[in-house]
Design a protein that fits this description.
Two copies of one chain form a homodimer.
Chain A: H1 16-30, E1 37-38, H2 50-63, H3 79-90, E2 102-105, H4 108-114, E3 125-129, H5 133-141, E4 148-149, E5 154-155, E6 158-162, E7 180-184, H6 196-209, E8 212-216, E9 242-247, H7 249-252, E10 260-264, E11 269-270, E12 273-274, H8 275-286, H9 292-300, H10 304-330, E13 335-337, E14 343-347, H11 354-365, E15 367-368, E16 370-371, E17 382-386, H12 391-402
Helix pairs in contact in A: 2-9, 3-9, 4-5, 10-12
Chain lengths: 404, 404
């Protein structure tokens, strides 16, 4: 008799962004003609840069001719893209990563959620709180998280690393030693970046405790401060204990094109077993590669024109971030993030809960953000705004918020 | 202390097609200039049809303009594509499937390997033998398959359904009742199709035993015989017990574009739990959708021009299949499949093992096929050739094989 994976029943409510979407849909149904400003989900708004669409057009033409048609992609992804990534993202920063340590995929969300499969079913998992929900939910589905407590809003078998105003939203080491540690910097949702020294401490901690760090660097392109690390592999010894996830979604606007990659050094071994080989096996067995045309688009990100064009896009978003941050601070809000990340993490006013502030903003200002409590119990009383809107919308949002 | 998922250590050798690729690579390194004819991996060779590349170009232009840019796709996939699929693949055949029962994905391989996640960890899984390796390997990785026996070449907890000359490569019901049953028709690797009556018997069996059929219909476009079912939902009651996987890879040459879909009726429930909701949750949490431009390409498959163009492509491949089958039969080989599927399943001559015949064909004829034993113990003594080459190459392959 077929039965379901009962771990799914332990998932809390629906996925955060689905709930936000439902509330927005209800508001729009009941308020025909109202112009909402959406600074909620972290989706980009600027179009794909010209150098990249040109590469896409060329690749489409290749696919339309027998001599240049491309079928199944190589398991790790095309070498032209892996070489470009290694050269531009790693070697230029003095990091020794080989092209065959790069696994091209359809995005960091897939990789972040699938990576847990290659580790032991009983692994103890540490996550930041607040946290990008995918790290938690993928481990709940796999049965690693235990049961959810309505009281603590925590799963019994997860180790939570509080990220609070007190610790500057950079987690301290936990009392219980984890096997797997999810870290994301610059952080989603807090928008806070980590210093190289602090990240090195986490790498040292992982090495000392035989833990693996699952490092989500999807927002590294938003780092303004030259001293901050773009990759965990800037830290000494990270190749022995860390897996890194990267995305083209936020640096080049690929949320609708789908491209990302995972980096696993061949030096990362657990009891002599190569983690690289395990992921290679998973990748080859359960996945068939990102589209050729999208991999060519990724390559174009690293051309001189592509690189210049996406830098301009990022600068546009960061102008929004700076504006949102200073304007909200000027209006009396306590605001974090937004300097090396496209996210603003603000404290809700007057002790409102995150969802109360969400409803207030939606219903009275027509502005959509994301409730901090949706990212974890330590996100309660906070609220995330993204800098991915247009500058005009960012200004309009502030004008409306000031009237609240 | 982090440890690996030890189930991965139970996987046998490397993924079949990786082994084939390695042997081919070695041959090519040692035989510079030799012209290999590759009828091994099931990759297509004809370029993307003009109506589809035109749609891709239009979609790329949309992505390059702010007003028409598309970011994250809707969870289930774009409605324009789901509507086109429902209309053309189901309603035209009198099947009642709703657009919100379609889940767009990056291909059937991902879906076939991920689907097991939503079922109980202890589910008893039945697979055909020979079988597309992904069904087995994904369950080995999940710890459902038990241990592999070198003697029987079987995993201890899988239920094998022998597909042999005796049963015409259509499996009989097993002695032990399975919870999940993977079926694939027209079949990969045998190239044999199932009749509607026989498929109805499997649906009735599943309904009677509370089992779920995971039906891979990736090759349905190759069916020539009007009486054969394209979808399991042509069978009465299948909406209560079956999940169907479809692909654009083989009907429209999307192996390098990546697009497929899974169909789950909202009527499919296990102990009152909606399997549709479970997969929706998995899809929304661990996946971010197929690229907008590729979904537009999928839509173009259903336009009058697109439809006509891909029918011509399929006819070209089926001309190869018919030629390969009759020429091999004429040369004294025993041959199956190839009439409603792009695969030829031939018996190796002179009692050679599948891998011996692979080596013979590679080294003495410069032709690459796939050893039947790579698909399971009942594939031993068989060999798969695909019809996805060009007609010229198919003729040349036969000329070379005749000289063996």
């Amino acid at each position: 008799m077929a039965t379901i994976n009962e771990n799914y029943l332990k998932l809390q409510g629906s996925y955060l962004f689905q709930t936000v979407a439902r509330k927005v849909h209800e508001f729009e149904s009941n308020n025909q003609g109202a112009r909402l400003i959406k600074l909620g989900i972290g989706d980009v708004t600027q179009p794909i840069a010209p150098a990249i669409t040109a590469a896409l057009h060329r690749a489409v033409d290749e696919m339309g001719a027998a001599e240049t048609f491309h079928g199944y992609a190589p398991d790790l992804g095309y070498e032209f893209l892996r070489n470009a990534i290694v050269e531009n993202e790693y070697r230029k920063r003095g990091i020794d990563i080989e092209p065959d340590e790069i696994f091209i995929s359809d995005g960091a969300k897939s990789d972040c959620s699938n990576i847990q499969e290659i580790f032991d079913h009983n692994s103890l998992v540490a996550v930041c709180d607040p946290v990008y929900p995918v790290y938690v939910d993928s481990n709940v589905m796999a049965g690693r998280a235990g049961n959810f407590s309505e009281e603590t809003k925590h799963y019994s078998r997860l180790i939570y690393l509080p990220c609070t105003e007190d610790n500057g939203f950079i987690p301290d080491f936990p009392k219980i030693k984890p096997d797997l540690i999810y870290l994301c910097f610059p952080n989603n949702p807090t928008g806070v970046a980590i210093t190289k020294d602090r990240l090195q401490e986490w790498v040292d901690y992982a090495l000392k405790n035989d833990a693996v760090i699952l490092y989500d660097a999807a927002y590294e392109a938003y780092i303004n401060d030259d001293q901050l690390p773009h990759s965990i592999y800037e830290c000494s010894g990270a190749e022995y204990c860390a897996i890194e996830f990267r995305s083209f979604s936020k640096n080049a606007g690929f949320t609708g094109l789908r491209l990302g990659y995972t980096v696993i050094s061949k030096k990362l071994k657990l009891h002599g077993e190569s983690v690289h080989s395990m992921w290679a096996r998973r990748h080859g067995t359960k996945y068939n590669g990102a589209p050729y045309i999208v991999q060519r688009a990724g390559e174009a990100v690293y051309t001189p024109e592509g690189s210049r064009q996406i830098k301009e896009q990022i600068a546009t978003y960061m102008k929004n971030a700076q504006y949102l941050k200073s304007a909200l601070a000027g209006a009396g809000y306590t605001v974090y993030g937004g300097e090396n990340a496209p996210y603003i993490w603000l404290k809700t006013p007057r002790g409102l809960s995150s969802w109360e502030f969400f409803d207030l903003l939606l219903n009275n200002a027509g502005v959509v953000g994301t409730p901090g409590s949706g990212f974890g119990s330590h996100g309660e009383g906070f609220f995330r705004l993204t800098a991915f809107g247009t500058y005009e919308n960012s200004r309009e949002a502030i004008a409306r918020i000031k009237c609240l």
